[in-house]
Design brief:
NADH-Q_OxRdtase_suN/2
C-alpha cells in the first residue's frame, strides 16, 4: 500500500524542520561572532514567520478539515469495515488555533533568545536548532490523530527542552533544572506509554477515531465480531472495564506531568528558576499548549465514551491545581518562581471546563467547554509572555531577580513597569486588563452551565487568592525608593520588541475579546 502525502497539510512542521536543519548548517560553516548569532536568530525568526503565514493560508483556504497519512478503515484495525479512511495527521480549526498560538509565542521567545545569547556562553546554533525542533513537535501534536504520533510529537516537544535548559554551561542551577526536567519527563513518558499500550491492547487500533468507536460500543474490538459482541465482551467477567480505566488514568497522568497539574507539579518552580528566562517562557506557554492539545484530543476525541470516568478526575485535578498553585505563589519572593506557581494555577483554570465537557453534551472538539479552555489558554499566553519578557529585562541588572528588585521600577524604567503592571492586572482579571476577566467569565459560564457549582466556587475563591500576589507585585512597581537602582535600558532592542508584541496582543484581547472568543468557539468545526 502506498500512502498519498498532502504536502500543503504538513507544510508548517516541514518548514520548521527545514529551517532547523538550515540553522545547524549555517552555524557549522559561518565564523563565530555576534553577527552570526544575530543572523541565526533572524533566520529562525524568518522561518517561524513563514510557518505562521502557512497557518494563515490554511485557515483562509477553508473547505473543511484536510488530512494526510491515511489508511482505509479496514486496515486501521482488524475489526474495521467500510471504505472510510483513518488518518494520522489532520488539519482543522483546532489544529490551526494551536499552531497559530505556538508560532506567535515562538516569535516572542526567539526575540527574548536573541538578548539571552548576546552575553555569550551559550552556543547560538544549537539553541535555535533545539527551539525549532520543539516547535516542530508543538505544531504537530494538535494535528496528531493516532496514539503513536501523539507520543512522538509530545516527546519532540519535551526532549529539546532538556538541552535548552542545560545549555547555560557552568551554571549549577541550570544543570540541576535540566536533570529534574529530564527525570520528570522520563517518568511521565513511561507512565503514558503504559497507558497507551493498555488502550491499544484492548481496542486493537491506535487511531483516535477508532478508539472512540470501540470504547463507546459502536464498533467491535478484537475478539468480538460485532459491536454487540464487543459490548458483551466488555460486560463479561474479563476485567476489561478496569483495564480501560487504568489505561485512561495513566494517559491522563502522563499529560498532567507535562502541564504541571497537581499532584505532578513539584518540578515546575525549580526548573523555571534554573532555566534561562526564554526557556521558562517556552515551558509556560508553548510546552503547556502542546500538553493541553494532546490531553484534549485524548479525552474528547479518543475517549468520549469514558467521560463518566475521566470527568470527575479532571474536576478534582483542576480544583487541586488552581488551589495549590495559588497558595504556593503567595509565598514566593523570586519573580520567576512566582510566575511558575502562577502558571500551575492557570493550568487549573484551563482544565476546569474540560471537567464538564460531558455534561454539556457529547464531548467533542467543537463543544463549548473545549472552546472555553482553548480561549483561556490563548489569552493566558499573551499575558504570561509579556510578564516573562519584562522579567528578562530586569534580570539583566539584578542578580537574584526577586520581587524586591522591582520596587520603584516605574521611576527608573516607566515603560517596563507599565507593561509588567498591565500583564499582571490581566492575569488577575482586573480592569483595565479585561482580557483575563473575559477569559475567567467564559470558564465560569461553562462550569456553571455544566452543573459543577462546587468547582465554580473553588475557582472563585482561587481568583480572589490570585489577586493578592498579583496586586502586591504591581504595587511594588510604583513604590518610591530612596536609592534608585540601575535601569533596564541596556537590554537589546529585541527584548523590547518582544514586550511590545505581547503587550499589544494582551491589550487587543482586552479591547476586542471577540477576536479570540469567536475563533476558539469554532476551534474545530468544519
Amino acid at each position: 500500500m502506498i500512502q498519498q502525502i498532502d504536502y500543503f497539510v504538513i507544510a508548517v512542521p516541514l518548514v520548521l524542520a527545514l529551517v532547523a536543519g538550515l540553522v545547524l548548517m549555517l552555524d557549522a560553516f559561518l565564523p563565530r561572532g555576534g553577527r552570526t548569532q544575530t543572523g541565526l536568530g533572524l533566520v529562525s525568526l524568518g522561518g517561524i514567520v513563514v510557518a505562521l503565514g502557512l497557518v494563515v493560508a490554511q485557515a483562509v483556504r477553508g473547505g473543511g478539515p484536510r488530512a494526510t497519512f491515511c489508511v482505509p478503515e479496514s486496515l486501521a484495525t482488524p475489526a474495521g469495515a467500510g471504505s472510510a479512511a483513518a488518518c494520522s495527521f489532520v488539519v482543522d480549526r483546532f489544529t490551526l488555533i494551536f499552531a497559530g498560538l505556538v508560532l506567535v509565542a515562538a516569535v516572542v521567545v526567539v526575540l527574548m533568545s536573541m538578548s539571552e545569547l548576546a552575553g555569550g556562553g551559550i552556543p547560538a546554533g544549537e539553541w535555535y536548532f533545539l527551539v525549532l525542533c520543539t516547535l516542530v513537535g508543538a505544531v504537530t501534536l494538535p494535528a496528531s490523530r493516532d496514539l503513536i504520533m501523539l507520543v512522538v510529537a509530545l516527546e519532540l516537544v519535551s526532549l529539546p527542552v532538556f538541552a535548552l535548559t542545560a545549555l547555560k554551561r557552568y551554571d549549577g542551577r541550570s544543570s540541576e533544572a535540566a536533570v529534574k526536567l529530564f527525570l520528570v519527563s522520563v517518568v511521565s513518558t513511561a507512565v503514558m506509554l503504559f497507558g497507551v499500550s493498555l488502550l491499544y491492547g484492548i481496542a486493537g487500533t491506535v487511531y483516535l477515531s477508532r478508539l472512540a468507536s470501540v470504547f463507546s460500543g459502536t464498533a467491535a474490538a478484537p475478539g468480538a465480531a460485532t459491536p454487540e459482541a464487543h459490548s458483551a465482551l466488555l460486560a463479561a467477567d474479563h476485567g476489561l472495564p478496569g483495564v480501560v480505566t487504568v489505561g485512561l488514568v495513566l494517559v491522563v497522568a502522563g499529560f498532567a506531568f507535562k502541564i504541571a497539574a497537581v499532584p505532578f507539579h513539584s518540578w515546575a518552580a525549580d526548573v523555571y528558576q534554573g532555566a534561562p528566562v526564554p526557556v521558562a517562557a517556552l515551558l509556560s506557554v508553548i510546552s503547556k499548549a502542546a500538553g493541553f492539545a494532546g490531553l484534549i484530543l485524548v479525552l474528547v476525541t479518543a475517549l468520549p465514551g469514558q467521560a463518566a470516568t475521566w470527568a470527575p478526575i479532571i474536576a478534582i485535578v483542576a480544583a487541586l491545581t488552581m488551589t495549590v498553585g495559588n497558595l504556593l505563589a503567595m509565598r514566593q519572593r523570586s519573580a520567576v518562581r512566582l510566575l511558575a506557581w502562577s502558571s500551575v494555577a492557570q493550568s487549573g483554570y484551563i482544565l476546569a471546563p474540560l471537567a464538564v465537557a460531558a455534561r454539556t453534551g457529547a464531548p467533542s472538539l467543537t463543544s463549548g467547554a473545549v472552546g472555553a479552555s482553548v480561549a483561556y489558554l490563548v489569552i493566558y499566553a499573551a499575558m504570561n509572555l509579556g510578564a516573562f519578557a519584562v522579567v528578562m529585562l530586569v534580570s539583566r541588572t539584578t542578580a537574584r531577580n526577586e520581587l524586591d528588585d522591582y520596587r520603584g521600577l516605574a521611576f527608573r524604567s516607566p515603560m517596563a513597569a507599565i507593561a509588567l503592571a498591565f500583564c499582571l492586572i490581566c492575569l488577575a482579571g482586573l480592569p483595565p486588563g479585561l482580557a483575563g476577566l473575559f477569559a475567567k467569565v467564559v470558564v465560569f459560564r461553562e462550569i456553571i452551565e455544566g452543573g459543577a457549582g462546587w468547582l465554580a466556587v473553588v475557582m472563585a475563591v482561587n481568583t480572589v487568592i490570585g489577586l493578592y500576589y498579583y496586586v502586591i507585585w504591581t504595587a511594588r512597581l510604583f513604590t518610591p525608593v530612596e536609592a534608585v537602582p540601575a535601569g533596564v535600558r541596556r537590554a537589546l532592542p529585541a527584548v523590547w520588541v518582544a514586550v511590545g508584541i505581547a503587550l499589544v496582543v494582551a491589550l487587543l484581547f482586552s479591547v476586542a475579546p471577540q477576536l479570540v472568543l469567536g475563533v476558539t468557539a469554532l476551534s474545530a468545526s468544519g
